[in-house]
Amino acid sequence: MLRGEVCGRGPSARTRSRLPFSGGPASVPKAPRQGGFGRGTCWSATAPSAAAVADEAGAPTKSGEGKVTQPAERKGLIDTQPPRGTRDFPPEDMRLRNWLFGEFAAVSAAFGFEQFDAPVLESEELFVRKAGEEITEQLYNFEDKGGRRVALRPELTPSLARLVLQRGKQLPLPAKWFAIGQCWRYERMTRGRRREHYQWNMDIVGVPGVEAEAELLAAIVMFFERVGLTAADVGIKVSNRKVLQSVLTQYGVPPESFAKVCVIVDKLDKLPRDKVEEELRALGVAASTIDGVLGALQLRDLDALGGLLGPDSEAVAELRKLWELAAGYGFQDWLVFDPSVVRGLAYYTGTVFEARDRAGALRAICGGGRYDKLLATFGAPDNTPMAGFGFGDAVIVELLKERGLLPAPGHRVDDVVVPLDGGLRPAAAGIATALRRGGRSVDLVLEAKKMKWAFKHAEKLGASRLVLVGASEWERGAVVVKDLAAFEQKEMTVAELTGGAAPAPAASASA
User: Fold this and answer.
1) Residue 456 neighbours by CB under 8 Å, 6+ apart
2) Residue 422: which CATH number?
3) Where in this protein does the record put region Disordered (predicted)?
């Protein structure tokens, strides 16, 4: 996006993937242009990276095959598609999203976590750090009308840190918080990656040991099990930042280069090895050191790692303890030791982990670890033990879809109420109100419809009962109730139907 004050959507047509819960690649004009990314909210963004511009220029996609659509005429139909990289949530997709978020929230509640939220728009300084992080290059950031530098949050952890700092010593520790929020990154779109996504975070504040990481990993595994995935489908790669730190120290790499090396090493699963080596050489790392470091990152056994780092290695001790706790929880089969996992964000300090599909067809499902020094980077006088993870909504949906585990939640109501005469609409409205007050979900038919339509409509909504308000029955204070599951019909008084709740009185026409 170009820097500048913008509001609303631009006129170009886009074709969005029609897969459920998807906002896949689409065709767009070759030049990036202004556009608002939010209903009722206006903002601007910085100029995109070269890769993002190339992506914006019409790379081949499933829907448009790289075809560039022309802007609609000013007087013609408005652009009905959402901005590139974003999604609409019509009712069928919203039901799926609610199901997914419900699973996130249920797991969090099972572990005793409290929910929090923070503004999507945050101060830019929360996200700008000095490690060459890719995320800082993907910010939707701009100067607001008050001259303040702000950004749409690309992740939730810095907002959590701000809240913890805000509460200060009034926050009882340990604190266990979770959030489900929207995040924004201007990046090249691929399968499971778009420019906005929702993220589930669980974080523990105030626990210095790996017991916190074990609890968080147990929550992730519980979620996977709840949605039907097994350890054969997903592996959680685990390492410790101190592993790479120890290896770099052995090879004489200065401490000030550690964060930058982590960012580069994090690209091992995204770039060919020679490209990673090239970036390390550009950082001033010697060729022999590169071979030794990358060789150490190929180890897949804790005993071998202990042999390399020595018997007093803090990293090895923490990893062994984590595996012991995992055995106690019963999720050790999900864990995979992989020292090449370092995570690209600079604030991680200890345990790091990523969950990935075993087939390797998708990018990381979720990731996290320990970040004890984050609050200090925001000005806190001391480090505070913190650990957490972020779990996006996009990759998990792709994986569940691939495994045939993605549900298709339907729109369901308990009752459908149908007035059989226009003059009985006030009576039908009163019955619907009484049923709703009693806790039932009720669809009130608002137009004159034939009985055949009413039956099909009730079936489509999965209703258990069809309530017919007819003239002769209403004169006796009754209605006809059809039990759609038992294929039975009976006449019931209004009191019997509503459990004693009286319908709202109809207003006088002469009032």
Assistant:
1) none
2) 3.40.50.800
3) 1-91
